[in-house]
Amino acid sequence: MAEILLSVVKIAVIVFGFVMLVASLMTLLGDRKQSAKIQNRIGPNQARFFGFSLAGIPHFLADGIKMILKENVTPAQSNKFLHTIAPGLVFVPALVGWAVVPFMDHYCTGTVQTLPQMNYTEVCVGGEWKNYFSIMHFNSGLLFAFAIAAVSVYGAAIAGWASNSKFSLLGGLRSSAQMISYEVSMGLSLAGVLMIYGTLNLNEMVRMQGNMFGDWLPMWGVVVQPLAFFLFFLAGLAETKRAPFDLPEDESVIVAGYITEYSSMKFAMMQLSEYAATVFIAALIAVIFLGGWQVPYVYADGIRFLDNHWVPFGEDAWYWISIFLRIGAMVFKILFLVWLQFMMRWTLPRFRYDQVMTLGWKILLPLSIANLFVTALVLAIL
Amino acid sequence: MVIADYLPLLVLTAMALGVVTVIICLAQFFGPKNPTPEKMMPYESGSDPIGEPQATRFSVKFYMVAISFILFDLETIFVIPWAMSWQDSAALGHGLYSFAVMAIFLSILTVGLVYEWSQGGLEWD
Lengths: 382, 125
Fold this sequence. Notes:
By secondary structure, chain A is mainly alpha-helical. Chain A contains 12 helices and 9 strands.
């Protein structure tokens, strides 16, 4: 019972607190205010709360209420059942994937010791690790994240087919073809990272990234596998169907793609799950390549740089400070990557569809195979 | 991992499904219901829809992509367990052997990719 309660609290804080908050604020700040700034407009500022514009936040609340109060139109001759469940098929995977993302290392009931002689591994002495900061400790978490992320292809394809509109069908086809094309290079670019870390568990992977090269360079994924980081970032951008890869929702060509026939809260769900997927990809990149919750040189038992060891504020207080620093680092990395994706969205022009396919199959795929080959060769020779 | 360790996943899935159901019901109950034939018509830039989209045929390129996807996704599925067990085989001193085995597998698939490329299977026009 206590375990169910704990997981409910964790889910409420991580998924419905953090992810949904970031995703829905992104619709406001990222998609509207930031785009307005880039395009030299003001953006939404008319909705006011007791006379205060509050940086446009009342707009986002008004939008939510407006969405609920709009008519829920299901086009004639559409498949009503599939048309209704398709937003759910996109929305649920966008949330369930968060089960494996670690926001902080496990909590140690004893004292944590860092072993500089053993590559700065942290061990828990006189206690055990308690999983308080990720929803689930999953041995093959990365595979799970991929499997769940791939399920959302069905939602888009079904939504496109069930709407009985040509624009929707084209959008659904485009999104499924694009998502499966980039999934290949996404998976292959990670094989090199897996060879180096030797684990699929995301928290273990972040722990490994606390190791140091020559006592000063953190072994983050982006340091050991820079090309894989680049490939994964591009493929992730294409997976979330964000610009410059937003061909499935190419509004000047196929209206709104597979969400053309959606209205009311079903439309809101489609949009929200896309933003949630953006945050999820950002979290995966942060965990695999940018060290997750790791802050360089900051360990649970003090700050270590080269041979110096410094414990500010005493041992016990520092443990809590390090926990907050690390959660803050994780959140900061996610927000930074989300911001980066939005900057790319509003900076780069959209590709043509054949260019998207060429990039996926003729550039990213050979590069990720080459990256794997070279990584394996270097590791085999060393 | 024992089966009870998967409990949070079950809870999360149940909560996500619950949220989806609530949102769909909200949309169903709160909005006005005023369907007209024009409103229920599939959007086609304002004109009456021509033909049945679900019965129309579409470009064979999408099938080519799907078939290539199956091939290379299977490659990924074979590569990931090998990458995971790499450190074990390297610790036993079989690093080069393990690499050679995988290199043969990878090069067969790379030849496949090159062949598909040369036959124009990756062109999109």
